[in-house]
Structures are given as C-alpha cells and as structure tokens.
Amino acid sequence: MMKQIFGRRKASKTAGKECGGRTFNQLLSGSGFADLSGQLPILSSTGDIYGNGNRTGFQDSRINDTLFSSNFRLLPSFKDVPNTEKQNLLIKKLNMCCTLFDFEDAAKNIKEKEIKTLMLLEIDEYVRTANAKFPEIIVEAITKMISVNLFRTLISPPREKKVLQAFDLEEDEPLMDPAWPHLYHVYELLLTFVQSPENDAKLAKKYIDHSFILRLLELFDSEDARERDRLKTVLHRIYGKFMVYRPFIRKAINNIFYQFIYETEKHNGIAELLEIFGSIINGFALPLKEEHKLFLGRTLIPLHKPRCTSMYHRQLSYCITQFVEKDCKLADTVIRGLIKYWPITNSTKEVLFLGELEEVLDATQPAEFQKCMVPLSHQIAHCLNSSHFQVAERVLFFWNNIHFENFVKQNSKVILPIILPALEKNINGHWNQVVQSLSLNVRKLLSDRDPQMFTECLRKYEEDKGREKEFKLKQELAWKRLDEIASAKVTSGEAVLVSPTLPRQPSFL
C-alpha cells in the first residue's frame, strides 16, 4: 500500500526549469511535490482528510504519520537557489503550506508545525521584497494556500444560559484559538500580498473575488479577538486596493448587520465591522449619496435596538457622529432615532445613550435642534426623574456642556416648561442626595439665565400641582364613598350601582 501511495508521483527531472506556460497543477505535479488533490494530506482538527479543501473519507492515522515523516521536510531557502529556481521553490513551499494540522494537541506534529511556520515566514519575506509583478500562477497559488488555511467552519463553544439572556460577554474570559500562532502568519502573508505594489489588482481580482470576500466576512464571527483584529486590517486594505469591490463590501457588511439586528442578535465581530465602516464614512464625499443616508436610517440607528449594544456602542456612536458631522441636516433623524430605541429598563444602556446624545448635540446646528427639541426635552425630563442615580446624574451633567446650555437658553420658552417640573420633583423627592444637589444647581442656573420666564414656569407648575392635589383628593373621596356603599349592601346581596361615573383626568405633572 505504501508503494502505491508513493509511486503515484515521482520527482520530475524538469523541476528546476521555469514555469513557462504550464498551469498551476501541472507545475505542482511535475515539481517533485504533490498538488493539492494529490499525495500530501490536509489534516483538520477533527482528523478528517482534505484535498482541494473538500472533505473525503477518513484514513488510518498511522499512514498519515508516515506521509508526514517522509514528505513534510524543510526545503532550501530562497537565497540558496538561483533566481531561475525561486518561482518553482515558492510553488513547492505554498503547496506544503496547504497542509493543516491539529493545534488542539500541542504535542502532535511538532516538527512539521515548526517547518510550516518557517516556510510561511520565508514566503512572507519573498512577497515583501519582490521587485517584479507576480505572474498569475503565483497569485493563484498564494490565494489558494491562504483559502485552505483560513476558510473554515467556526465552531462556538456552548455558553451559559445567562449569556443567552443578557449576552454580556465582557465578564467572560476571552477565548483563544490554539491555532492562532499559525493563523497569524497566514494573515500576515495575506496582508503583505494585498498591500504589495507588485500585486496587480486587475489580475488579483480573478482570485480575490466576491466569494473570497464573503468567506473573509464570515470569519468576523470568530471567538478570538486577535483574529477579528487582523481581519479588520485585511478587509480595510482590500477595500482600499480594489475600488470596484467597494459597493459589494458595503452591501455584504450591511447584510450581516441586518441578520444581527432582526434575526440572531448574536455576532462576535459587529464592533470590528463598525470600526471599518467608521473609516469608510469618514471618506464619504459630499453631498452624501442616498445609499449612505439609507444605511444610516435602516442599519446604524436600528443597531441601538439589540440587548448587547454595549459590546459595540463606542464604534456605533463614532459612525453616527461622523454622519452628523458630514451632514448637519441628519441630526434630527439621528436624535429621533435614538429616542425611538431608548431603553426602558436597562439603566447601563441609558447612560451610553446619553453619552452618545451629547456627542450628537455637539455636532447639531440650532435649526436642526429646533425640529426635535420637544420630544428630546420630554426624554431628558424622563431621564431626570430616573430612579437610577447614574442616569439622572448623567443627564444633569448636560448643563456643563456650553453647546447644550445655549440651546436651552435660545429655546427656553419651549424647553423650560417641560424640564422644570422634573427638576422640582427631584429636588423635593429624589432619594439620592447628589441628584438633589445637582438638580438645585441646574434650577439656579435656569433661574439666573431668564428670571421672568423661570418665575412664570414655576407659577404654572405650582398651579398644576395644586390642581393635581385637588383631583387626587376628589378621587380619594369617591373611592371612600364607593367603599361605604359596598359595605352597606354587602349583606343584602344587592348589586352596587354607582352614579355618576367619575371622568378620567390627565396627570398635571
């Protein structure tokens, strides 16, 4: 059986000749090394055998070990061979690097792993120092080797039930892929290859195509933050080099966001993808295209909805602010969108929203502020009366912002009647002393800014408070009367009829 395996391909005497017009597989089969579908196995961490990236039948591990020991050997360095042989040697090294190892077992194939790492470093140096355009056969070989090593099915370990409820991964230990030290060198090679001036973009497009980009995007769901960080850099470079792919990349990332928002609410790479988009938005030309405005309204703003917003909020806030700085007319859309998705019971998330709101207000013009100041003032008043002291404290700090304070001063006739009752309620009844003290400071600031308006609003507040007190007293008397009637007739078994019906009254505060 060993003879059958090793007898299929023999070393060719023409291995030292130049590639000429031969194809990639012809070169491999005649170079003294097996092609990707030939004698060298590609072992996954599950023990399955791969050839050309496709799963085949499982073979005896003893045969696999024999194959490794007899074929996976260190090849000469590039500096030790003539220039005419370097391209053939590169193909051989790339072919050998298509072999995958089980990194779950650190004691397995130690020598072979070291050889592969050394070859990846040599290939990276070769690509980095190249001084001539890469021929198609090299471009194909490099992208094929990278695809074999990187593109794999990501398997997430089971999480505790609390994660399914809160998706709070910040408290969990970061997961480290045992294969990362190896994958790192593959990513470095991909980055070097994409950035190389000798890599012709028109030729590389045949192999770094839509399918290649989509599979790269799938890897953003990796549990290992180190891999996601490298992917972020690689995808950014691809976006910069291959201009024709820019709309496709934006659309593909958008689809990932849609699936995350409306279906799964689970993805490990949302922060990294938003970071890429932050850089893309920064380069948008003015006036903004309708496509970009739709992305803001249909994707970025709804990204505030998922429960795990805190995992990527910093990057999301940056993207949102970039849009407002690019086009100030979008401020109204953004502020109303924040109010629409404002958290109801998640105080931590509310604090994040308030921080983002303040950043957006810093980039908002007076005309745009006036469009949304009424719903915004009601939301601020609601936060002022929050029973969670951090939420109330954070919104009171808005008055330290000169930009926001000027908005309030310029529109005090509209804002003050909405804000003042909330401040008075804090001063008279909030449980936290710091919130009470800050509310007093803001109250004094408003009073000093416009004494006449403040006095008028305070008088109206006192009137409304008196009417509400009177209404509550009438309500209590009505319920007391109902109770007396019911008690008097409880022994008779008669139905209790009450007339007239009390009218429903709105709250005054």
Average predicted confidence as pLDDT: 82
CATH domain class of the domain at 1-154 and 167-208: Mainly Alpha
Percent helix, as a range, is 55-70%
The poorly predicted ranges are 1-67, 160-169
- CATH architecture descriptor text of the domain at 1-154 and 167-208: Alpha Horseshoe
CA-atom Rg in angstroms: 34 Å
Report the sheet-strand fraction.
under 5%
Q: Whole-Å distance between the termini?
A: 89 Å
Total helices: the number is: 23
Helix/strand-derived category reads: mainly alpha
- The fourth-level CATH homologous superfamily of the domain at 1-154 and 167-208 is Leucine-rich Repeat Variant
Number of strands: 3
Pfam family, one: B56
Organism: Zea mays (Maize)
Protein name: Serine/threonine protein phosphatase 2A regulatory subunit
InterPro entries: ARM-like, ARM-type_fold, PP2A_B56
Structural commentary:
This protein has 509 residues and is mainly α. It has a domain at 1-154 and 167-208: Leucine-rich Repeat Variant (Alpha Horseshoe), CATH 1.25.10.10. The chain contains 23 helices and three strands. Strands 1-2-3 form a three-stranded antiparallel beta sheet, with no helix packed on it. GO terms for molecular function: protein phosphatase activator activity. One of its GO terms (cellular component) is cytoplasm.
